From TrEMBL:
<dbReference type="Pfam" id="PF01047">
    <property type="entry name" value="MarR"/>
</dbReference>
<keyword id="KW-0804">Transcription</keyword>
<dbReference type="InterPro" id="IPR011991">
    <property type="entry name" value="ArsR-like_HTH"/>
</dbReference>
<dbReference type="InterPro" id="IPR036388">
    <property type="entry name" value="WH-like_DNA-bd_sf"/>
</dbReference>
<keyword id="KW-0805">Transcription regulation</keyword>
<protein>
    <submittedName>
        <fullName>DNA-binding MarR family transcriptional regulator</fullName>
    </submittedName>
</protein>
<feature type="domain" description="HTH marR-type">
    <location>
        <begin position="5"/>
        <end position="136"/>
    </location>
</feature>
<dbReference type="GO" id="GO:0003677">
    <property type="term" value="F:DNA binding"/>
</dbReference>
<keyword id="KW-0238">DNA-binding</keyword>
<dbReference type="InterPro" id="IPR036390">
    <property type="entry name" value="WH_DNA-bd_sf"/>
</dbReference>
<dbReference type="InterPro" id="IPR000835">
    <property type="entry name" value="HTH_MarR-typ"/>
</dbReference>
Length: 138
């Protein structure tokens, strides 16, 4: 692999670490971590999901998902209810989380906008197309 490719993947890894840190700095004062936000965002956008569906979508192991969901449930942001299959529980947002969602979203959007302030719309679209192509290789 060429040095450019190695540096490319190293840069992606470093960016995601720093982005998670910046997102945590924006969300922690609001009682949430970035990993929890991702789940809340998905549930708000897509509706109730199973733990397995969430873990697969996010690419995390079951024990990691179990711990994160447990923390969200303890905080009062999610609840679990029986699905159509009695063995499977559906994860849903609580009313408290729904009410808090816009505040969290605003904090996330502010963080994202600060990061993207030097990026043109054209650069953003080009980068998104590259990420889609890279995702096909996973």
């Amino acid at each position: 692999m060429s040095d450019n490719r190695n540096e490319f993947f190293h840069s992606i890894n470093q960016f995601t670490r720093h982005f998670s840190k910046a997102l945590n700095e924006a969300l922690v004062p609001l009682g949430l971590y970035s990993a929890q936000w991702t789940i809340i965002y998905l549930l708000n956008t897509n509706g109730p999901s199973s733990q397995k569906e969430l873990a697969q979508y996010l690419g995390v192991e079951a024990p990691t998902m179990t711990r994160t969901l447990s923390r969200l449930e303890s905080a009062g942001w999610i609840t679990k209810e029986m699905g159509a299959d009695r063995r499977e529980k559906r994860i849903i947002l609580t009313e408290a989380a729904v009410q808090q969602f816009d505040g969290w979203l605003q904090a996330v959007r502010t963080c994202e906008n600060n990061i993207l302030k030097k990026i043109s719309e054209e650069e953003l679209l080009f980068t998104q197309s590259i990420i889609r192509k890279m995702s096909e290789g996973l």
